[in-house]
Amino acid sequence: MSASPALLVEPAALAAEIAAADPPTLLDVRWRLAGPPGREDYDDGHLPGAVFVDLDADLCGPPGAGGRHPLPDPAALQQVLRAAGVRAGHPVVVYDGGDSMAAARAWWTLRWAGHQQVRVLHGGYPAWVAQHLPVVTGTPCPVPGDITVAPGGLPVLDADAAAELVAAGGTLLDVRAAARYRGETEPVDPVAGHIPGARNVPAARYAGPDGRFAAPPALRQIFDEAPTGTPVGAYCGSGVTAAQAVLALHLAGRADAALYVGSWSDWITDPARPVATGEETSTG
Predict the structure, then answer these.
(1) Who has greater pLDDT, 37 or 268?
(2) 165-188 pLDDT, tens per residue?
(3) Mean pLDDT in the chain?
(4) CB-side exposure of 246: number of CA atoms within 13 Å?
(5) What is the Cα–Cα distance from 23 to 26, expressed in whole angstroms?
(6) Residues that are catalytic
(7) What's the angle, vertex CA 124, arms to CA 143 and CA 212, rounded to 5?
(8) Predicted confidence band of residue 282 (pLDDT cuts 50, 70, 90)
(9) DSSP string over 160-181
(10) Cα–Cα dist 277/181, whole Å
(11) Rounded to the nearest 5°, which phi and psi values hold at 129?
(12) Which strands form 8-9's sheet, in the order they lie side by side?
């Protein structure tokens, strides 16, 4: 595993960048799985200059056969990002409410769309507030950006590719809680269990509830069952928590990690696809 580029930024460092002549574009992507919409949090206070982008409506396609958070339409995504002021070749920083999941999915989406300079505010909005850094309530009017969305910047798995990855001896990580992996409970989707051959590495192992990631050496140890030279992919319920896993894998040096965007919510749409329950090869 090789060293990763800077993917995270600490609050104090970001504050200095915001105060500079040409600050990064800031995207507020606060989101909750069960609502209410993150826009309410944004209106109550956000980083200076940050533009709110809705994870469900703006960064994903409509729920359906591709899962609950499928890939967005490239043209629609380009329109959203340009309206938010995203410029070609200009750095972007994304942040969420503190668990790093929505921010990681936003990071992944921009990287998939071909935008390389994207970082996540480590610890999200709570970390910013905890350091008594400035917060505003007004809505900015950014100069429209000129980003051109070019899909393919990061590898993507669909159901067939996920199954093929396992069959070829690769590592497919299921990053849901162990009880969901084993099929003992399923609070969101109508079918419980996991993709046969997937290995369980719950998200709590590599990121804390405050959204802060373990240090790269610890991450490499956590993901050591995905050896260099063999393919690795991740899935969760609908591709949000798994995007956090892909970010963690990048931090560990696995920039080749693929995201099964549809994840379990897509896998179970075809009753012919096999479902496994119980323990298999689990590190949870």
Answers:
(1) 268
(2) 999 999 999 999 999 999 999 999
(3) 93
(4) 32
(5) 9
(6) 236
(7) 140
(8) very low
(9) HHHHHHHHTT-EEEE-S-HHHH
(10) 7
(11) -65, -35
(12) 8-9, 118-121, 92-95, 25-28, 51-52
